[in-house]
Amino acid sequence: MSSEDIAISVRGLSKAYTIAHASSKHTTAAEALMHRLRNPFLRPETETFWALKDVSFDIPCGQIVGIIGRNGAGKSTLLKILSRITEPTSGYVHLRGRVGSLLEVGTGFHPELTGRENIYLNGSLLGMNRQEISRQFDAIVDFAEVEQFLDTPVKRYSSGMYVRLAFAVAAHLNPEILIVDEVLAVGDATFQQKCLGKMGDVAQQGRTILFVSHNVAAIRSLCNRALSMANGKLILDSDVETGISHYLSDDHASDAMVVWPEEDAPQSPEVRFKKAYLLNDIGQYASLLDIRNGFSISLEYELLKPVKGLRLGFFMQNASGVPICGSNTFVAEPNVVTEPGYYKTQCTFMSHCLNTDRYSVYFGADLPPNPVPLVTTPYCLSFMVEDVVGHGVLNEKLPGVMRPNVEWETHFSVAKL
Asked: In this structure, what are the phi and psi dihedrals at residue 213, rounded to the nearest 5 degrees?
């Protein structure tokens, strides 16, 4: 393959951060000042953290590549370097063409400018002149569905409006390379499908797409190649099916519990998620479940202020990315105020419910009837359901998602002549 056919070339890419560890913590500025005066030559302990380590790959023009891996794998750091937001510590990147990126809500937007002004600002950053931007302007506004607020400063936009406009700009201003992070999870399901359709249209025009998502169904439907990352390293460069199977079967991705530190917890002004976990039928953390026994899914969270009608829920998919089910706490009295504090909610599944397969779960919180979630997580729990007995003497695996233990009755009768 000639160099002209390569859209992205990455060689030996590494990114290191220096993390400082204070020897003591101070609660006031006066304590910190006195400590510095008494210890003028004391330096905090530091360590080097490698967010990326020796990553290399090539992506041909027109290819759609999914980047998958658990949280902290280095996916977002890689995209920030490719988008020229962060400088690498070592290695290099060669990009062929203009890059449009959507990495987080508000990337590339100036909060004091209006939606209209930010469209032209983003186009200018991509190297387009005003005439080129104007030709796409109506299509951008129509896709984003923000015409009513076009001349409003974007700092007053909701997160959903922000993302709709940001994606519309990134996708319509004709970049040769489009980079999209998990930020699409902020939008509702209809908008996500609309974005996936648009990325498919962009790919058909011969442009290159890098797509980071924990939604393996979206990766499978859109991408034709997968890069699997873990601990800052590229561990697998493969076709999509192989990459997804590796990701879902990873021992680290199948943990039965996730605990979010306060600084990184999924949260909103109303609620902060603390811990999510799976329990088997005897109350133990378990990511390998027996089909004959029930299990429960639990979420612990903190209410940060009084709220009315808070609803918690989860959504589940299988290893093929097929949606299995979702459920949430029922809000019987939406006007009842729940006071701040620490809460746990739990959902219990009966035995012989799910068939043999691997499943993953994510969580969310909202305030009905507002369709925009307050908080969502990536798929953060994964578990395997196994049939240790088998079906009949052949020990065969039955197809399908459900595996109910139904009762059969057979009656003998003699037909009359």
From this structure: -160, 150
